[in-house]
Amino acid sequence: MNDPNTAPELFTWEFATDPYPAYAWLREHSPVHRTRLPSGVEAWLVTRYADARQALADQRLSKNPAHHAEPAHAKGKTGIPGERKAELMTHLLNIDPPDHTRLRRLVSKAFTPRRVAEFAPRVQELTDRLIDDIFEKQHSADKGEADLIHEFAFPLPIYAICDMLGVPREDQDDFRDWAGMMIRHGGGPRGGVARSVKKMRGYLAELIHRKRREPGDDLISGLIRASDHGEHLTENEAAAMAFILLFAGFETTVNLIGNGVYALLRHPGQRERLQASLAAGESGLLATGVEELLRYDGPVELATWRFATEPLTLGGQRIAAGDPVLVVLAAADRDPERFDAPDTLDLSRTDNQHLGYGHGIHYCLGAPLARLEGQTALATLLRRMPDLRLAGDPDDLRWRGGLIMRGLRTLPVEFTVQTS
After folding, report:
1. What is the pTM of this model?
2. All structural domains of the chain
3. Where does residue 234 rank: exposed (0-12), middle (13-18), buried (19+ CB within 10 A)?
4. pLDDT tens track for 181-217
């Protein structure tokens, strides 16, 4: 990137480690940029905040892959691997109104502020249990070590969303294994992800039948009741909804916690401010801090796929009908035209309408739960591991190479063991 006239190379391992200089170049020189993705699909990348916000709410950009005129080499490469074959396509990330409106209304009842607040004690219980498990594994009475991704950030949202869906406790470790395959293979062969999707689909079909016989106070039972009371929800729609809530609901929170902790460890002054605020019993900096972590290095790098239903102009570029469009949330949230000192982490930032969870009718339904999990996880870690620090050289850390999500493969840490 030394030559300002030459576009940076995208989607390399070096780019995955720190994509922000490349995004800065695109914002300045090619804000709506056509590129060939690693899958071979040609797509437009939208990098400026104003253009991104417009695109996320533009009804001419459909979520339905049927609007993509796929060339042979790109067939089936614009969604979640295996979802088409597993008949899991009819979920919120793939549909438009009026079906989107109908299905979102049904599932949104599980994510009201009241329901999320009622779930807070369970999230705290899971958080403390996972930290207890980490402490119990230590061989030294004082110095502890852990991989904070696989031992904490990953299992917390898996168990939480399983509880909300109504997956029995005895089955939740299976979900953890399947989700783990998705994480491990996120940037590699699609086969591992597709196998996990197939296993989830089979289990969800069985669970839906069980819940129909013995309904409970959970999300899957609620979807079934809606279906039985005339909302016309098919079994495939119910399974797809449960699947996408799990798929989209766990990895975003894994990365929110992992990226957030890493950012705090790299910015000790900000971390100390937050610890002092929490020690004083104040919650304001925690709330604004999580929003800033979402903006600064959020869990979703690119918004999920959109397809032009008609020719349109975006950021001065003419986009043809059928073209895929990917809004680069990570680039938009570092746009100096929208945010003061955008490359600076400031946990007290209040003018912070970031796009980390999207915008418009497809705004992330599970954002309130993710925020709860992120705030609970960070506050508890800083309280119970007050001297948490990186174990090893930051240059040795590796980021997963997937297209949509942004997260660390591992986060090795050291700490002093606290028993309470």
Report:
1. 0.91
2. 13-416 (1.10.630.10)
3. exposed
4. 766 654 444 446 677 778 888 888 889 889 989 998 8
